[in-house]
Amino acid sequence: MKGLTIVKKKALSILSVIALLGSLLAGCGGQEPQQAAAPTAGGEGGSSQVQMESELVIAGNGSTVEKLMKDKIFKKFNEKYPDVKLTYVSGVSTEIVAKIKAQKNAPQIDVAVIEGGEQEKGRIDGLWESITEQDVPSMSKVPKEFQVIENSGITVNVTPMGISYNAEMVKEKNLPIPKSWNDLARPEMKGYITMAGITSNFGRSPLIMLSYANGGSEKDMDPGFEKLKTIAGYMPTFAKSSAQLMQNLQNKSAAYTTWTMARSLVLKESGLPLEFVFPEEGGNVVLTVASLVKGAKHPVAAKAFIEFLLSDEVQTMYATDLYYSPAVPVELPEEVAKMLEFDRSKVVTFDNQVVAEKTAEWIDRFNKEVAPLAGK
Prior knowledge:
alpha+beta; eight-stranded mixed β-sheet; 13 helices
């Protein structure tokens, strides 16, 4: 007998009997009872005896992320905590934050696993609980550069932003292989670029990096906007979604786009001949952050789930299934580790607070000054 079955809370007398029985079994047989609470160092008040709730609602991205969650991560979590019913709410990060904000007085979601920039907007709106190492012990393994402001969430994976290109198309048409963010504005690129608008991180981060590549930053965006005006004239329109970017690459209406290494590798493995470039000026790293919703109905289970996302098992799943780099040290298969290599010395760390505060202003400027130039 490896462990006792998790028992739902009924009455104090029953809990006392269970606790006594667990002690006797541990003393007599050296057997370890299965946890009916958060991990030993976690839980409210630091107590390992806090009762685990029977439900948990997690929100996160759809598509391949949702599939990994439902098919593998949820199943493995339920092997450890079989009495916790898991529900997944899928959507893009902006939608998830908006939904949680609308439910602020009566939260229906416990954990949000979303892109770091949108998580920061939620932090400014007061949507997340602060998390401590007592709640989630493995957060101590997350490198300092990936830590979240005010511990309002925990980074669970990362991937660099850069430029992807269709290698076959580039070779066939004798097009340049990009090395710099500024290469997107080269005349030879005209008619071969697809990019998302800046409401998407696939468009917003490249805009910020175009500023960095020309002497600016997130605090001085004029250089980036000027370059993006040129690039806009090279495209018929800005894509509305990542699905549209992918379609444009697949049907060869475009040879280049800006997005993450993870997205590029997933599509390459599916047969699209994509190559990823981390530009010579560097680029930002997109963080996926797990946050505990303020006032969540199931905080103990939520903390246990976030801790589980940082386990070697799940971190390896993120890398082998979706090509996200782990947020904590973990030994990966050699082939996968090689695929995920990039020059970390060139990582540009954005001030996410500035980005969150300025995004609405940038979108307004983009709509007025840049978007109308597409197709011109």
